[in-house]
Amino acid sequence: MVDDELGVVEEADRFLRELRLARGRAETTTKAYAEAVVLFLTWCANSRREWRTAARDMGLFMLWLKWTPGNGGQRRVVVPGPGAKPVRGESRINKVLTAVRMFLVHAVVNKAAPTWVLEQIYELGDDRDLPQEARGESGAMRYRMRARHPLQEPATTIDRAGDEEIVAMFLKCRSARDRLILLLLVNLFRPPYGAPMTTDAIGELCESLSRRAGLGRKIGPRMCRHAMASNVADAGGKLDEVQALLGQKSAESPRPYLHPKPSRLREAVERVPLPRVSAKEGDR
Questions:
Q1: Which helix (H) or strand (E) segment is 148 a member of?
Q2: d(CA 121, CA 56)
Q3: Residues contacting 114, CB < 8 A, separation 6+
Q4: How far apart are CA 81 and CA 71, in angstroms?
Q5: pTM over the 0.70 mark
Q6: Could you give the CA distance from residue 128 to residue 142 in angstroms, rounded to a whole number?
Q7: Per the count of CB atoms within 10 A, which of 72, 74, 163, 265 is most buried?
Q8: C-alpha separations of 36 from 61, 98, 182, 210, 252 in Å
Q9: pLDDT of 137-176, one tens digit each?
Q10: Residues 6 or more apart from 102 whose CB is under 8 A from it?
């Protein structure tokens, strides 16, 4: 990471190198964290705050994130108005805050920021608000660090792609690359040639195929992933089998991916035996 004068921002660069090389995070994850740290450092510079101690004003940073455009925006000041649409939503702001908290914790651990910064970004909480399954078997109360500034995100669901939609997209593929995109994932059509395809490129391909197939909506990669998981379940697959096929670590992770067909739900209802009432003589 470099500043406007192309000088290396040492602490941010050290954090990102540890994230990518020492912790083995994916390149896309490291890039997302880098973008979040850039936003934080930009806010600090624009507001003339020292980044090592700016955590005390994290609420103002959240306000800045919500209303200030990025480099592509025309406005450079925060001018929210009645009914104005926020520049960044709750989910995006929470992701930025997560990355910034990790960056500041890294700075504290490496003596680049004062220890009291942790008090500004975390509060001490107990496990009473956790589900019973997550509290452990000892019964003793446990304490944990809880982020101070989480935003409540609206509940969203991801639809699954229908089998007929996927088939329609497949029939409109113009190359073997397109047909094997979910298996090969190698870019052969635009620079840098031979490099792994980015998530944006895969999304663009799915959007193009949806349009060519004449579908009434855009089918994205995640919707295809949901379709695969649901088809495995509809075919009698168990939850642990879906988990293994999706490459997920937690046994609970596959549940949001399952969208049972109406026919399977109908069969489940029909399997329930009808209640039988033993009517005595004279009962009505």
A1: none
A2: 8
A3: 52, 53, 108
A4: 21
A5: no
A6: 9
A7: 163
A8: 12, 9, 29, 32, 28
A9: 555 555 567 788 888 777 666 777 787 887 888 888 887 7
A10: 15, 19, 33
